[in-house]
Amino acid sequence: MPSFNGRTALALVSLGTFGSTVLSAPSGDWKGHGGWHGHNDPFSNASWPLPRRVYGENDTANVDSATEGWGGIHLHDPSIVLGPDGHYYSFSTHGLTVISRASKKGSIDGYWEIIGSVLDAGSSVIDNPGSTDPWAPDVHKVGDTYYDYYSVSQFGSQISAIGLATSKTLMPGSWTDHGEVFSSDPNATYPLNVTNAIDANLFIDPKTKTPYINYGSFWSNIYQFELTDDLKDIKQDTAVQLSLDPVAPQPEEGAYMNYHDGWYYLWYSHGTCCGYNASALPAPGEEYSIRVGRSRSPRGPFVDREGVKLTEGGGYIVYGSHDFVYGPGGQGVLSDYHGRDVLYYHYVNTILDPTYADNLKLLGWNYIDYIQGWPVLSYH
């Protein structure tokens, strides 16, 4: 059955241009990189697939089959949703929340083009440092309205806020900025005095229809509040911690929750996200990777494949650095019309960008298979 999450069910059928179907098998250098199929251990990192090809403004002109068409589009912390016109739209960090559009209906492969921004007034109405450069949008359709939860902060700061903008159409110029939903700082009420109010994720429980917001980065890691029915405020006394890395600097962030076949899955990014220096990269395993835990309740406790609670340092690594993929993270989940789930994320392509620059985090995606109740990624 399909997963339920904050995004509408999405159709991923390509309508031409770059192949007859997005389900077409890779060729040439891609043989052997299709994921867990054919491997004895589907949970091994040897089973991690390469990202599916995405086309967009950063496509390369290189005729080398290993890199041609691999530019795709720079989307840091992507949030993808199906628009009312049948096209996919992505929202991403920087540029007053950049809006990009895939040119072919029903295809996440692209061709992706930037069409504008959410906060076209030049900044958020939130009076915090970082208001002109919002991060980590999380966009969902609820009823007939699109909700964009965005973050206002600065790198290394806990003085942060999560804001909300809404639109009926998704298009640039149509968004209303409602300002702050909640904020964090050392003088706030618990847990907002010990957490970091960025990286919001809306999740509406498909069983109870209760709305929750997951959030957090580094400081005490990932927490959750229940939201008010209008989705514009938190219920302060409903806070619960979902995940914690007890080892400093506690590099967990970017929570995303989905539901599949009786299980609630909490995905998150772990490690160093940004500021990579090709001559002094983080120690292997300390760069971004995508991890997950599961629970029978959206309130937790979430555990990994070994049964370790995420609040006690657990976490199953679903996807990490391999081949030319480095530091994947900023992930989200959507469901296609066949009932198959997709994980999308940003990553560094080390062939195209040996400098590991922050301004070329490419959009990638893979199908999700559930094996023994645990997500495994596949190219096919």
TrEMBL record:
Record-level GO BP terms: arabinan catabolic process
Site (Important for catalytic activity, responsible for pKa modulation of the active site Glu and correct orientation of both the proton donor and substrate): D199
Entry's EC annotation: 3.2.1.99
A Pfam family it matches: Glyco_hydro_43
Recorded metabolic or biological pathway in which this protein acts: Glycan metabolism; L-arabinan degradation
GO molecular function annotation: arabinan endo-1,5-alpha-L-arabinosidase activity
Entry-linked Gene3D superfamilies: Glycosyl hydrolase domain, family 43 (2.115.10.20)
Residues at the catalytic site: D77, E253
Signal peptide annotation: 1-24
Keywords attached to this entry: Glycosidase, Hydrolase, Signal
Reactions performed catalytically: Endohydrolysis of (1->5)-alpha-arabinofuranosidic linkages in (1->5)-arabinans
Family (UniProt): Belongs to the glycosyl hydrolase 43 family.
Protein name: Arabinan endo-1,5-alpha-L-arabinosidase
Originating species: Hortaea werneckii EXF-2000
